[in-house]
Write a structure and sequence with these properties.
single chain, about 120 residues, mainly alpha, 4 helices
C-alpha cells in the first residue's frame, strides 16, 4: 500500500486563524448589541447567537486538530551505517540506537507470531 503525501499544516493554520477572527468579530458584535439593549427577547436572541458561535468555534478547533502535523523523514539505518563505516559521520552515532530498536521490534513481532523464541 502506498501512502499519499499530505500537505504541510500551513493551510489549516491559516484557515483556523481566519475562522477564529471571523468568530471573534461576530461575538464582539453580539456583545455590543447586548450592551445596547434592555429587551429580554433580544437579550435571549443574542445569547443564543453567542452560544451558537461558541459551538462553531469548538468544532473549528476540532477540525484544525485533525490535520496531520509534518514529520521528519526517518533516518535510513542502512545509509547511516554505511556513512559511519566510511567516514564516521554524525549519522553513525544515531544508527546504533535505531538498529537496536529495529532488532527489538523484530523480536517482539516474532514472539507475537509464535516464532522460534515465542513458542511455548
Amino acid at each position: 500500500m502506498t501512502q499519499t503525501q499530505t500537505q504541510t499544516p500551513a493551510p489549516s493554520i491559516a484557515w483556523s486563524q481566519a475562522m477564529q477572527a471571523k468568530l471573534m468579530a461576530a461575538l464582539d458584535a453580539a456583545w455590543a448589541s447586548l450592551e445596547r439593549s434592555h429587551d429580554p427577547a433580544e437579550i435571549r436572541k443574542v445569547r443564543d447567537k453567542a452560544k451558537a458561535i461558541g459551538e462553531l468555534a469548538a468544532m473549528a478547533r476540532k477540525v484544525a486538530q485533525m490535520t496531520p502535523t509534518a514529520r521528519k523523514p526517518p533516518v535510513d539505518v542502512l545509509a547511516a551505517g554505511l556513512a559511519a563505516a566510511q567516514g564516521g559521520s554524525d549519522l553513525g552515532i544515531m544508527a546504533a540506537p535505531l538498529a537496536a530498536q529495529a532488532e527489538h521490534a523484530r523480536r517482539a513481532l516474532d514472539k507475537l507470531k509464535g516464532g522460534r523464541r515465542g513458542r511455548l
